[in-house]
Design brief:
The chain is α/β, with parallel strands linked by helices and 185 residues long. 19% of the residues lie in helices and 18% in strands. It has five helices and ten strands. The strands form four sheets. Strands 1-2-5 form a three-stranded parallel sheet. The protein has a three-stranded antiparallel sheet with strand order 6-10-9, with no helix packed on it. The chain has a two-stranded antiparallel sheet with strand order 3-4. A hairpin with a 5-residue loop joins strand 7 and strand 8. The radius of gyration is 20 Å and the shape is globular. About 10% of the residues have low confidence.
Length: 185
């Protein structure tokens, strides 16, 4: 049945997800990179791929293979440069394809400038970018993580950070504090 409305592109496209680290290595350093992906675009196009979905290539200390973003405005050097990224986008579009970049919004690296700034004080304007809780009181008056629940890495989900004596939730990598999506800025 036709309703006369057009189906959104993302409901009818052929998507191919690329984990850049292991896809194609153009500079022979053993790590896949953006230029390697560019070199394989004709092959992907010939397969009938219409949309590429790239796992994170943003600046990252790589503790969680790119999912621990320390800078949303740059590319991790092992994958190339921002110029390489722009070139990839241009080449994808030149072939009539689309590219979607995986955005990691529910946590960052503990090296991200927002996190470093937010942990400085309880009144910091970026404090509400993360889920902070006071530590739990332990024996002998010591403070522990805000939670002892498990996370997917098998350790406690909470982690303390000083100053101040409080902690952030960390549901993923131990060095990836959970951010809050409730902040609107």
């Amino acid at each position: 049945m036709t309703t006369g409305t057009q189906v959104p592109w993302w409901k009818s496209t052929t998507v191919y997800q690329i984990y850049p680290r292991s896809f194609a290595d153009a500079n022979a350093d053993g790590i896949g990179d953006l230029r390697g992906i560019i070199g394989r675009l004709d092959y992907l196009h010939d397969l009938g791929v219409e949309t590429l979905w790239l796992s994170p290539v943003y600046q990252s200390p790589q503790a969680d293979f790119g999912y621990d973003v320390s800078g949303h405005y740059d590319i991790s050097p092992e994958y190339g440069s921002l110029e390489d990224c722009h070139h990839l986008i241009d080449e994808v579009h030149r072939r009539g394809m689309r590219v979607v970049f995986d955005m990691v919004l529910n946590h960052t690296s503990d090296q991200h400038p927002w996190f470093l700034e937010s942990r400085g004080s309880r009144t910091n304007p970026r404090r509400d970018f993360y889920i902070w809780r006071d530590g739990q009181k332990r024996r002998r008056g010591r403070s522990g993580p805000p939670t002892t629940g498990a996370r997917c890495w098998g350790r406690m989900a909470g982690s303390t950070t000083r100053p101040p004596i409080s902690g952030t939730g960390r549901a993923f990598c131990p060095s990836s504090p959970t951010s809050t999506t409730a902040t609107r800025r």
